[in-house]
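Please check both lines for our workbook:

___
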Amino acid sequence: MREPGESRDDHSDSQPLGSEEELEASIPIHKDAWSQTLDDMQAMAEELEDEGWDTVTVTAVDTAAEPPEDGTGDRWGLVHVVPDNQAEAFREAVEACEFPAFDVFRAEAEGRVFHVTQLLDPETETSILIAGNFQRYRADGAVQTAREENEMYTHAETLSGDHLGSFKHDDYEKFFPEADRLVDLDEER
């Protein structure tokens, strides 16, 4: 996992992998990247807890970079599906705290973005860490909207669609450090 705002492109392909062989070859790479992401999230949680913070960790069962035209109402941004066994702790933290600060730790491997979103409420020393991953090529609409709006959103819901919380972020480049370059490339096509 990278430092906040730092990105690593193991393979910066923004298109989906093509052949069955390519897909099969990427499976162990994705498993390793996901395992590393979860290990990094746990290490971050332990560090925060050592500093006296209350920490909720969430391993999203699905994450989508949703553009406005695909979202519920006018919702857009990263949408994380929180497993039922982690939903209550998440909901309680969201109801009790504001989370005005955030950071994103991310890496890319074989066309997928693996990340931990860190939501922080310094006043109550409460944090939420959300681990997720999504296919990079499916994020183009969200990237373009984030760039146009100069902001980003994180949403969390249960598998049944119950809304758990939404967070507005004033720095979309933490999520998509290559946003300006990617949007410029799309405009050239």
User: Anything to note?
Assistant: The beta strands are 54-59, 62-66, 77-82, 101-109, 112-121, 126-135, 152-158, 163-169. The chain is about 35% helix and 30% strand. Residues 20-188 form one domain. Confidence is low (pLDDT under 50) at residues 2-15.
